[in-house]
């Protein structure tokens, strides 16, 4: 029996001590006055009576009632029922000041509510104070409380004649039965009728079972208020320990909602802060860090908004707000969706019928109380499904004196198939579940509905899943039971309680609530107590039983074994392999091993392996020979490598006894066990794994204690506890040691540990004290002995074989991090027992062996502490254990030392012999092969990716380091691939990143040191060193690699050491033999060093001067900033008039032979012969001013400058530019005579001015101005050296230009063709136009607003004009500038516009070198990722490609280049002046020349272009390629590679315009970083001369054997093979290319992604052409010819070699036949030229000819110029693309001359070349030219629609060469051959066409075709 009410309290309003308007609660009276012993009075109760604060009120409010819940320190809940009513304030009760304050306060707060409310009785300013009656109880009977307090209030208000003291006394002494009572009696015990002595009668029904919560209607109300989804998310939030806050205006609703949420959580109990109604004064509780469920009045919503991690449920608004930082894991599917649908069926039964045509007339709607129980039933089912089989994962650790139970979480998750599930993981780790285990795990206790459900109904729930009606029926049955539990006797629920009359609260109360007489109440209480003492204590007879375990676990969703569908076959393979191993059939086993290792990825196979191995263990030991041991260990490792740290599937647990059983004898007395070879797995260092194993084993032994010996037939389970894997929950004792947790026991008669425990708990009270003591002692010593056993086991698996190797521990997830107690595995299970702090440890880095021991000891001690305290081991025993552990570890270390020593003596396993790589002539091996495994990186093809193919990687072989390359050669480890040699290599010089890794070797799964080497030739070597490679060898390899990669001096590079006299070690030669100019230069440098101290800051970012290490010891003055190089050289040494010294003359003669000089002559930019005294008519001259590299070190010796500029002025001009790189001409357009200039960027003007002012203190004009004037003069000279702009002829009108030129001098992204109707008028008006107006427009607009817009649009940022029209007609300029300066936005700010409008600034935004570097790094990672992508498929590659922004940079380069091409083509000159003038400037200038001049698209021209623009003009190859030690920090920046990529993009779009093949570009891309050739070494010609590289190749000094120059090599190779030649080369004369530059038009260069594992990179031709494989020779003579087919594997074979294109094949065939015939084979080029010539001579009647003619003729011309990709993609789709080219944004193809020329009619004829309607008849005819002209074959087209006979040069020509109008034809007659006619043609094939103007003579190829032509023309005439 229990008291209905513990305390009755009367709380009234009292003034606040600080005198504010807020009052506070005061306890007037409480009964009983002294606390009950078993239940002290709850403190702070007055806060909860008025949760929003105690306030006076201007009117009488109706009484309110709610129940607050207080939780005491023992987490007992106290229910405080509060009934509040209002009484008028008596003046005596309250001081006047407080009253005034309150009144003012109220007026202010309520806005004068008193005036608005209906008049309250009493004086107008009467205030009312709240008074509260409180009942405090530990029982939850809300209705009884409401009635009882209501009765007391009614007696007071209505003035009934009943003593309040009696009522209160009766209330406090009322006893009611606890839950259920003993229902075996009359059944009336569960119901109690009470009366408080006021003529009232109440029936109290106690619930049947205590454990089930009482919800009344709260759950149903919660669903009504919030809806299904919201309640489900609150449910998940509460279970996963999030903070939940309810808001409502009603207190009763708040407590209902909280009660409802708690009811849903059953059978779990909420154990965190639970405050259904939180008083305002305690709001800071909301910021507590622990989870909670709290209700707060909606008035405090604002405070709730500030909480960042609280889920707020607004009951009145029906919303649940989840903050962004909170993630609520949903229920696992399919439970989530099933629960959702059942809930909707319960809440909205009409939903099912809503669509019926004939809905049933009546619907039985459940009452609210019933609906409430149905909803709870749904959640009860949900828990039964979630926790089904949980009892199979319980471990009975102790039975006596109290049960200790642990739950095996990992096994539960593994069995349920929910390892990945976030929700269940969190629930199982939560406090609620821990309480669930300790409460419900007990085997012998009363059971309730949930136990029944989870044990017996799971199968039914499974079966009902797809039948909603059956599910609903089950829900209703459960609901009935829940309802019956709350209302056991619905019939007797009769209440008779008086209530106050209507609106009684408004009547004037006769008096305030009276003070009760304490004495009377106390007397009643004492009487009752005395009576109770006499009565026997009512003990509640609990009915305890053994809790049923239910069926074994099953997975929530049956995962269909798609992958392992044929698992039976796999298991068979595993079994066979193991039996072969133990029968000694090693060869058979070896064949099966790869298949077994593959099969072991599946769980079933791993379990099967453990079972099979168990069968071969006798008496806990199995001795194997070495081979068997190796096999077993490999299979074990393979099993364990996929185990997670928690070992959900029990694989590690199954193998644990085996690793201590299998062993091999190393020598007499030394045995090596398997555990020393399987330590490298994360599971062994996970404390939770060891705990679960320990508890499992303890359970097995405790169970064995209580079974009678007869029953226990299994000798192992007692003696060698190591065998049982013992997690088998109930029934885990089983002779087959491997049974998954939760599987049913094999025989029915076995009793599980839980059964045994249940039996023992039942008998416990009947045992004597001695017997009890004995049992407790036995259990304790069992646990203790297991702890010792486990300390041993753990030391086996944690101590490495070689204890000097501390690495092992360091890298194992657990130990190293547990040292610093920061490991994520240290969850609450560990944290409690970490007694001392280990943070002070110096990590494992430099730890010695003893420290390894220390770490292991600490790990084991922590484990022992935890498990022993949990399982109740005595403290003495625990101390003993702590003493033992270090000894155990020390002993084990000693044993291991012997094992380690002996294992080193084992004969090594036969490894495959190393394959030596082929080396280049002159390449030497630096380090011989180190055995390594080459592991797969992220490229899928090599590992047999999505394209199929063999798994070539991982491969086993060796890595070699030579003076030139890093080479891996080996064989795939997968024996199924066959004897394929795998080669992967890259030049040492291309290494960009080297990082140490530790990886598992593919064969033994051991953790080994490895290296990952990444190269900028897009190659990656990810290697694991074999165990035989010591760490010192690996370190030596790294050091040597580093030394070769970054030689201290450029002379140490391979290209210079190869075959040369001096070795890298020799000191460099003395500088004596250099020209005298260098010495003077040094002297001047020293002289200037002091003056130029501030020069560094001139440029925008500090310039690192090129490295001069090769000049011997780099003296500090050599490191001076470049700008000051020739600051104060006397002008006399620079003027051309000064006599050339003899040494200079030699230099001059060699300079003339440089590439740039040859090119200048080709372009007509002057020859040197008359350069010193030349005719002034030539606008430009070649100046030798820089021949000694005095003005600018990074420029070539000879420069093209305007004729009018003197050499000494150049010195001053150069100061305005960075690095002294002043503008020089590098190309001139043959057609428009516009020139292209390049220079470095301009110095910031202000800085230069300041600087120069210090140097020149003269009062005259400052030097800064003078040099800036010189600069303007220089630009003026450039402008005036061009064809005059002023007297513009018709060509210079606007007619030929796109609107973009008229608008902003930059083709806008959507340029359209615009022509002005009257060109002459336009030019005339322009000449007369007033200068001033246009000048002002330009001066204001150009360098200001407009130009920035230009730049941003160029950079692709600004929005294009809506229709591509000029931005504003006001800017239509009558004349384009003669010179455009393309500069960086940031630099051009200070430059003032030219006053005469002859040059114009185009500011653009360019990327810097560091951006190129960063972008390239990301591109490397995208193309060659180091590890497999998380999501397979192209998406991740494309995403990382986009992130790299590489293609965007290429797009910008092409865009700027096309812009410059446009400007040059339109006759304006362009100066490109970006950054320092050697990176982006070089890229742009080279691309412009390549696009504008077809010469540079030949092999010779491209070489010249690279030599001129990149080498002579000083692109810093060594600096950008980080060739030496000094450049190491700056890293690799692939500026040249980016240029080659741009060329490749153009090549793709115009495949017929380039003489060289794409392979040529890849070849240069590879060798510009490989350092095999000297061509791309050093940063300028000056450095190359200084090192003697440039001209030493003359005469005897020339080294015979090695190709020094890449060009020489290309030339030699081109003679032998057409690999660099493009067969599709068919150039157009003077074709200017305008490629599309949009990112969508760009393709990823296959140079980045392709590889050939058969032979390594194909760019070292001698190595790539492996030994020939002639299939003919292999077959025996006379045998049937074998198939010539062979498999070509992606990424293994070289496709071009396996399957050459048709022409290469024919050329090879010709050579072979010639060799067979004994003739000297003809060079391929000669044969090809002959074929082409022959093909040109043949008139092509119908396009049939040699294969090449097919190639050329089948591609119509317009496609070539618009960039159709011939190599890939259907032509049609790209054609449609080019059709839109006029509008396509970013394509500048249309804003060109062609575009203007291409009117609609030409477009019409272009795209419908072969259509019937405008080509009625066509073919080849010979036509006699006009007077004295020869006969020529032309392509004629007869067009009936246009009535024309047109002729073209050839069939694919789109430009018509002439038209004969048929309207003018008078007659068509047979003709006669005239002089020069084709000889072979019959006379009758000639005919004449006579027009009104002249007679045309024609000749067809034969008579029939002549006749046909005549007929066609005649019919056309007659039609007309």
Mean pLDDT score? 75
Report the biggest beta sheet as strand number plus sense, adding barrel if it closes. 7 strands, antiparallel
> How many beta-strand segments?
42
What is the beta-strand fraction? 5-15%
Q: Stretches where pLDDT falls below 50 for ≥5 residues?
A: 94-121, 181-188, 559-565, 710-749, 806-814, 816-849, 1060-1143, 1169-1175, 1246-1264, 1286-1374, 1592-1601, 1667-1681, ...
The N- and C-terminal alpha carbons lie at a distance of 123 Å
Number of helices: 66
Overall SS class: alpha+beta
Percent in helix: 25-40%
Question: What is this structure, in a nutshell?
Answer:
This protein is an alpha+beta fold.
Question: Helices, strands, pairings?
Answer:
Blueprint lengths: L1 E2 L3 E9 L7 E9 L13 H5 L14 E8 L5 E12 L7 H15 L2 H4 L11 E10 L4 H17 L5 H10 L1 E2 L14 E4 L7 E4 L12 H9 L1 H12 L3 E6 L2 H15 L7 E3 L16 E6 L3 H5 L4 E5 L4 E3 L13 H13 L2 H4 L14 H19 L7 E5 L5 E4 L1 H8 L5 H8 L1 H10 L3 E2 L3 H8 L1 H7 L3 H19 L31 H17 L10 E2 L20 H17 L2 H14 L3 H13 L6 E3 L1 H16 L9 H9 L2 E6 L2 E4 L13 H20 L8 H5 L33 H11 L5 H30 L8 H5 L1 H7 L8 H4 L17 H22 L4 H30 L20 E10 L20 E8 L2 E8 L9 E6 L3 E10 L6 E9 L3 E7 L5 H15 L8 H4 L18 H14 L52 H11 L2 H9 L16 E4 L15 E4 L4 H8 L9 E5 L6 E5 L5 H11 L7 H18 L18 H6 L14 H10 L2 H24 L24 E6 H4 L10 E6 L4 H15 ...
Parallel strand pairs: 10-12, 10-13, 11-12, 19-20, 32-35, 33-34, 33-35
Antiparallel strand pairs: 1-7, 2-3, 2-6, 4-5, 5-6, 8-9, 13-14, 15-16, 17-18, 20-21, 22-23, 22-28, 23-24, 24-25, 26-27, 27-28, 29-30, 31-32, 36-37, 36-42, 37-38, 38-39, 40-41, 41-42
Helix pairs in contact: 4-5, 5-19, 6-7, 6-8, 6-12, 10-12, 12-18, 20-21, 20-22, 21-23, 22-24, 25-27, 25-28, 28-32, 28-33, 30-32, 32-33, 38-50, 39-41, 46-47, 48-49, 48-52, 49-50, 49-52, 52-53
């Amino acid at each position: 029996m229990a008291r209905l009410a513990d305390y009755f309290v009367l709380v009234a309003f009292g003034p606040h001590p600080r005198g504010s308007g807020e009052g506070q609660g005061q306890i007037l009276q409480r009964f009983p006055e002294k606390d009950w012993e078993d239940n002290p009075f709850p403190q702070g109760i007055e806060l909860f009576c008025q949760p929003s604060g105690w306030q006076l009120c201007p009117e009488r409010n109706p009484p309110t009632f709610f129940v607050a819940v207080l939780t005491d320190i023992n987490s007992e809940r106290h229910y405080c029922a509060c009934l509040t009513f209002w009484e008028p304030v008596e003046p005596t009760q309250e001081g006047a000041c407080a009253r005034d304050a309150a009144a003012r306060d109220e007026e202010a707060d309520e806005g004068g509510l008193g005036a608005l409310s209906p008049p309250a009785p009493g004086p107008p300013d009467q205030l009312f104070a709240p008074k509260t009656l409180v009942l405090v109880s530990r029982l939850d009977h809300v209705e009884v409380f409401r009635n009882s307090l209501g009765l007391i209030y009614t007696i007071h208000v209505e003035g009934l004649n009943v003593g309040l003291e009696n009522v209160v006394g009766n209330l406090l002494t009322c006893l009611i039965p606890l839950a259920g009572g003993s229902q075996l009696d009359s059944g009336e015990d569960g119901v109690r009728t009470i009366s408080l002595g006021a003529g009232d009668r109440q029936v109290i029904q106690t619930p049947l079972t205590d454990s089930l919560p009482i919800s009344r209607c709260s759950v149903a109300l919660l669903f009504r208020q919030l809806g299904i989804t919201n309640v489900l998310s609150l449910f998940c939030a509460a279970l996963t320990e999030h903070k939940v806050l309810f808001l409502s205006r009603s207190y009763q609703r708040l407590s209902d909602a909280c009660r409802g949420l708690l009811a849903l959580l059953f059978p779990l109990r909420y154990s965190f802060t639970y405050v259904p109604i939180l008083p305002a004064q305690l709001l800071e509780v909301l910021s507590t860090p622990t989870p909670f469920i709290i209700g707060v009045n909606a008035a405090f919503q604002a405070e709730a908004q500030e909480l960042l991690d609280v889920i707020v449920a607004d009951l009145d608004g029906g919303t649940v707000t989840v903050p962004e930082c909170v993630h609520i894991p949903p229920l696992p599917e399919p439970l989530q969706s099933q629960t959702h649908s059942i809930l909707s069926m319960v809440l909205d039964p009409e939903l099912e019928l809503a669509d019926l045509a004939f809905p049933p007339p009546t619907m039985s709607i459940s009452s609210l109380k019933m609906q409430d129980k149905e909803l709870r039933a749904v959640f009860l089912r949900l828990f039964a499904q979630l926790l089904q089989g949980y009892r199979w994962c319980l471990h009975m650790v102790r039975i006596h004196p109290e049960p200790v139970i642990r739950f095996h979480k990992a096994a539960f998750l593994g069995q349920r198939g929910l390892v990945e599930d976030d929700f269940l993981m969190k629930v199982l780790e939560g406090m609620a579940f821990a309480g669930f285990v300790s409460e419900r795990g007990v085997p012998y206790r009363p059971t309730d509905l949930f136990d029944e459900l989870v044990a017996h109904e799971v199968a039914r729930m499974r079966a009902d899943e797809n039948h909603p009606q059956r599910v609903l029926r089950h829900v209703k049955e459960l609901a009935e039971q829940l309802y019956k539990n709350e209302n056991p006797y619905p019939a007797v629920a009769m209440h008779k309680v008086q209530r106050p009359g209507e609106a009684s609260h408004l009547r004037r109360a006769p008096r305030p609530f009276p003070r009760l007489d304490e004495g009377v109440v106390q007397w009643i209480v004492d009487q009752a107590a005395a009576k109770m003492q006499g009565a026997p204590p009512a003990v509640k007879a609990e009915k305890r039983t053994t809790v049923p375990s239910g069926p074994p676990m099953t997975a929530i969703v049956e995962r269909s074994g798609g992958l392992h569908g044929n698992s039976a076959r796999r298991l068979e393979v595993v079994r066979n392999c193991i039996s072969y191993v133990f029968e000694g059939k090693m060869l058979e086993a070896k064949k099966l091993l790869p298949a077994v290792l593959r099969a072991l990825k599946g769980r079933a196979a791993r379990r099967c392996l453990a079972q099979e191995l168990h069968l071969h263990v006798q008496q806990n030991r199995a001795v194997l020979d070495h081979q068997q041991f190796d096999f077993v260990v490999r299979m074990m490792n393979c099993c364990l490598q996929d185990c997670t740290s928690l070992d959900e599937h029990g694989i590690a647990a199954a193998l644990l006894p085996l690793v201590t059983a299998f062993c091999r004898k190393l020598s007499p007395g030394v045995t090596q066990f398997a555990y020393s070879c399987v330590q490298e797995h994360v599971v062994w260092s996970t404390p939770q794994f060891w705990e679960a194993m320990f508890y499992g084993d303890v359970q097995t032994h405790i169970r064995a204690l209580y079974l009678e010996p007869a029953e226990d037939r299994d000798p192992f389970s007692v003696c060698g506890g190591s065998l049982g894997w013992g997690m088998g929950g109930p029934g885990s004792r089983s002779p087959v040691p491997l049974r998954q947790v939760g599987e049913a026991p094999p025989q029915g008669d076995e009793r599980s540990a839980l059964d045994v425990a249940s039996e023992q708990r039942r008998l416990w009270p009947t045992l004597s004290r001695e017997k009890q003591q004995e049992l407790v002692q036995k259990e304790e010593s069992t646990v203790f002995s297991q702890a010792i056993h486990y300390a041993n086991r753990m030391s086996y698996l944690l101590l490495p074989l070689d204890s000097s190797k501390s690495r092992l521990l360091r890298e194992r997830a657990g130990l190293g991090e547990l040292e610093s107690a920061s490991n994520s595995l240290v969850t609450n299970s560990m944290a409690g027992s970490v007694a001392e702090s280990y943070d002070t440890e110096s990590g494992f880095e430099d730890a010695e062996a003893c420290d390894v021991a220390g770490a292991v000891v600490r790990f084991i001690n922590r484990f022992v502490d935890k498990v022993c305290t949990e399982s109740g081991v005595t403290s003495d025993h625990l101390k003993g254990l702590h003493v033992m552990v270090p000894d155990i570890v020390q002993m084990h270390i000693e044993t291991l030392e012997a094992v380690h020593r002996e294992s080193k003596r084992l004969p090594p396993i036969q490894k495959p012999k190393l394959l030596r790589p082929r080396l280049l002539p002159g390449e030497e091996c630096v380090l011989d092969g180190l055995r390594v495994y080459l592991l797969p990186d992220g490229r899928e093809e090599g590992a047999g990716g999505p394209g199929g193919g063999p798994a070539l990687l991982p491969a086993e072989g060796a890595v070699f380091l030579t003076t030139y390359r890093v080479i891996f050669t080996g064989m795939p480890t997968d024996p199924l691939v066959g004897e394929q040699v795998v080669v992967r290599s890259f030049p040492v010089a291309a290494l960009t990143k080297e990082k140490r890794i530790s990886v598992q070797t593919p064969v033994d799964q051991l953790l080994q040191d490895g290296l990952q080497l990444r190269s900028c030739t897009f190659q990656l070597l990810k290697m694991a060193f074999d165990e035989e490679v010591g760490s010192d060898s690996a370190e030596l390899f790294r050091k040597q690699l580093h030394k070769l990669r970054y030689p201290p001096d450029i002379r140490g590079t391979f290209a210079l050491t190869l075959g040369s006299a001096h070795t890298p070690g020799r000191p460099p030669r003395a500088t004596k033999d250099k020209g005298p100019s260098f010495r003077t230069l040094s002297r001047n440098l020293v002289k200037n060093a002091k003056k130029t101290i501030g020069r560094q800051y001139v440029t925008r970012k500090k310039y690192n001067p090129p490295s001069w290490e090769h000049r011997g010891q780099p003296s500090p003055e050599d490191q001076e900033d470049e700008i000051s190089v020739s600051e104060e050289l006397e002008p006399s040494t620079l003027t051309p008039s000064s006599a050339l010294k003899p040494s200079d003359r030699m230099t001059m003669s060699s300079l003339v032979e440089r590439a740039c000089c040859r090119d200048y002559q080709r372009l007509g930019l002057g020859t040197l012969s008359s350069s010193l005294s030349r005719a002034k008519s030539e606008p430009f001259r070649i100046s030798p001013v820089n021949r000694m590299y005095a003005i600018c070190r990074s420029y070539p010796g000879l420069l093209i400058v305007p004729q009018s500029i003197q050499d000494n002025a150049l010195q001053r001009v150069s100061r305005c530019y960075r690095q002294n790189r002043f503008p020089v001409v590098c190309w001139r357009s043959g057609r428009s005579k516009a020139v292209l200039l390049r220079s470095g960027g301009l110095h910031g003007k202000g800085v230069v001015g300041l600087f120069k002012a210090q140097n020149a203190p003269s009062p005259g004009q400052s030097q800064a101005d003078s040099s800036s004037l010189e600069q303007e003069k220089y630009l003026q000279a450039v402008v005036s050296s061009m064809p005059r702009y002023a007297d513009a002829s018709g060509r210079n009108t606007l007619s030929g230009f796109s609107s973009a030129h008229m608008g902003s001098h930059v083709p806008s992204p959507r340029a359209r063709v615009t022509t002005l109707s009257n060109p002459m008028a336009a030019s005339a008006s322009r000449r007369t136009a007033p200068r001033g107006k246009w000048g002002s427009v330009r001066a204001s607009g150009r360098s200001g607003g407009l130009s920035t817009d230009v730049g941003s649009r160029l950079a692709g940022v600004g929005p294009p004009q809506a229709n591509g029209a000029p931005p504003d007609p006001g800017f239509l300029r009558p004349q384009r500038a003669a010179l455009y300066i393309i500069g960086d936005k940031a630099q051009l700010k200070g430059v003032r516009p030219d006053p005469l409008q002859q040059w114009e600034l185009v500011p653009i935004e360019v990327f810097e070198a560091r951006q190129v570097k960063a972008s390239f790094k990301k591109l490397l990672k995208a193309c060659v990722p180091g590890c497999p992508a998380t999501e397979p498929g192209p998406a991740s590659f494309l995403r990382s490609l986009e992130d790299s922004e590489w293609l965007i940079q290429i797009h910008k380069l092409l865009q700027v280049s096309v812009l410059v091409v446009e400007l040059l083509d339109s006759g304006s000159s362009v100066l490109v002046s970006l950054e320092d003038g050697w990176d982006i400037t070089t890229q742009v200038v080279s691309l412009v020349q390549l696009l504008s001049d077809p010469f540079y698209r030949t092999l010779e021209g491209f070489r010249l272009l690279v030599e001129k623009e990149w080498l002579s003009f000083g692109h810093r190859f060594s600096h950008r390629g980080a060739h030496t030690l000094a450049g190491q920090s700056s890293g690799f920046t692939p500026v040249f590679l980016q240029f080659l990529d741009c060329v490749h993009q153009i090549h793709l779009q115009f495949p017929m315009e380039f003489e060289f093949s794409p392979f040529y570009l890849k070849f240069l891309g590879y060798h510009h970083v490989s350092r095999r050739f000297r061509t791309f070494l050093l940063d300028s010609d000056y450095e190359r001369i200084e090192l003697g590289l440039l001209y030493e190749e003359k005469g005897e000094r020339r080294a015979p054997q090695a190709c020094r120059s890449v060009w020489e090599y290309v030339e030699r190779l081109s003679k032998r093979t057409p690999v660099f030649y493009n067969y599709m080369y068919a150039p157009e004369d003077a074709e200017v290319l305008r490629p599309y530059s949009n990112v969508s038009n760009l393709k990823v260069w296959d140079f980045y992604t392709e590889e050939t594992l058969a032979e390594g990179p194909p760019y070292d031709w001698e190595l790539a052409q492996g030994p020939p494989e002639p299939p003919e020779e292999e077959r025996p003579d006379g045998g049937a010819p074998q198939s010539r087919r062979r498999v070509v594997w992606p990424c293994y074979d070289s496709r071009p070699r396996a399957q050459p294109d048709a022409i290469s094949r024919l050329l090879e065939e010709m050579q072979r036949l010639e060799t067979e015939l004994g003739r000297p084979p003809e060079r391929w080029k000669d044969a090809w030229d002959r074929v082409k010539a022959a093909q040109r001579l043949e008139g092509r009647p119908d396009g049939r000819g040699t294969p090449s003619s097919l190639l050329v003729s089948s591609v119509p011309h317009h496609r070539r110029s618009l960039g159709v990709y011939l190599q890939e993609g259907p032509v049609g789709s790209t054609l449609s693309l080019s059709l839109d080219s006029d509008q396509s944004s970013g394509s500048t193809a249309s804003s060109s001359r062609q575009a203007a020329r291409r009117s609609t009619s030409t477009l019409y004829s272009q795209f419908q070349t072969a259509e019937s309607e405008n080509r009625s008849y066509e073919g080849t005819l010979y036509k006699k030219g006009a007077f004295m002209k020869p006969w020529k074959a032309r392509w004629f087209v007869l067009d009936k629609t246009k009535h024309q006979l047109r002729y073209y040069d050839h069939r694919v020509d789109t430009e018509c060469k002439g038209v004969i109008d048929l309207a003018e034809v008078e007659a068509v007659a047979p003709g006669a051959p005239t002089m020069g006619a084709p000889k072979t043609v019959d006379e009758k094939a000639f005919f004449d066409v006579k027009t009104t103007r002249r007679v045309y003579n024609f000749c067809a190829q034969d008579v029939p075709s002549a006749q046909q032509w005549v007929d066609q023309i005649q019919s056309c005439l007659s039609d007309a």
